[in-house]
Amino acid sequence: MRVIVVGAGVLGTMHAWQAVERGHEVVHLEREAEARGASVRNFGLVWVGGRASGEELAAAQRARDLWQRIGERVPGLHFRANGSLTVLRTEAELAVAEEVVKREDAADRGYRLLDAAETRAVNPALRGDHLGALHCTRDAAVEPRTAQPALRAALQASGRYTFLPGREVRDLVGTAGVRDDHGEVHHGDLVLLCTGAWTGGLVRELAPELPVRRVRLQMMQTDPLGEPLTTSVADGDSFRYYPAYAGTALDALQAVQPQGQVAAEHRMQLLMVQRTDGGLTVGDTHEYEQPFGFDTVEEPYEHLAAVAGQFLGRPLPRIRRRWAGVYAQCLDAGRVVHRERPNDAVWLVTGPGGRGMTCSPAIAETTADLADL
Ligand SMILES: Cc1cc2nc3c(=O)[nH]c(=O)nc-3n(C[C@H](O)[C@H](O)[C@H](O)COP(=O)(O)OP(=O)(O)OC[C@H]3O[C@@H](n4cnc5c(N)ncnc54)[C@H](O)[C@@H]3O)c2cc1C
Q1: From CA 177, how far away is CA 4, in angstroms rounded?
Q2: What predicted TM-score, i.e. pTM, was given to this entire model?
């Protein structure tokens, strides 16, 4: 088969990967000169621990194994099974961790409850005061800025992959062809549209009632820390955002420990991961109301720097970069992604939300199975 993939974010690239792996030829079109959407703006967290039981956890677990396997072949992903620590600062946060480590699926998620000394033994950079941490050994990380180009380089070596950047797809032609904004038509047997959070234009024409919402996040990256941050790190506010932690202890936490004003206003949690140059990517915020701000605001950064500084027991290194990103999230909470078929040979795959980097290898594998690739 000849497969046309539209969109060179992580979802499009993983779909191209599946098609090439299964022996097909791929033409991959991207509007920009290089991927510039959510896939290069994220933390690169392959985050298993916080996923909802059922379809979401199964997809994250499968995807985590695929990331590892693909990472062995593509060193530019910098896949590392570094695990995560959710640092506990209050009795209410400790109670949430105590509750989840007793659940049946705790071992599958790689949960362990650590006291303060054990936490510092796992991640010596966490010198600040805390009660301990929820360790999730299944969590992992990749490098978002290099992942897509590294995957494409490996695909190109197959001889069955063509990347066409700077081509916006404007129309479907026939059953499985697309026309780009150079007027060129690309014919195939199957079209996979992985167009991310761009829900207007062609996507609106094909799927006017797309059940996804757009979410905007603010992020930053520091100068090198000067020492390893051996795990990814989260704060107790992350319990409020990930479905795995729902339960009576979280209800009690919400009642006795309301978020501070800035964290509540910007719907924040702290996530922190070390890049290969030693810098730290730190975030995030969640903005749901459109029109989104076109600029970044400072208060959330001050909050994140304060929390990160408490965990590290010293100030964050200088902030080198700040940015915002937008992802699309499907509205059906039970689904990992939204798939829609404008016709038999065309699939639109979008809305993986804040788990798109994590789950993309498994999402692409499922699409390939469903499409009989
Ligand atoms: C700040 C931030 C942090 C995040 N952190 C994490 C994390 O740590 N872990 C995690 O699992 N998830 C995370 N996510 C979510 C994850 O990044 C997204 O779910 C995922 O990257 C979506 O990938 P995508 O390929 O669908 O979209 P995108 O990366 O946006 O790619 C879509 C591509 O399609 C192209 N395109 C659109 N329309 C056309 C067209 N008509 N023709 C040609 N090309 C077109 C665009 O230019 C774009 O390059 C985060 C998201 C953000 C914004």
Answers
A1: 8
A2: 0.98
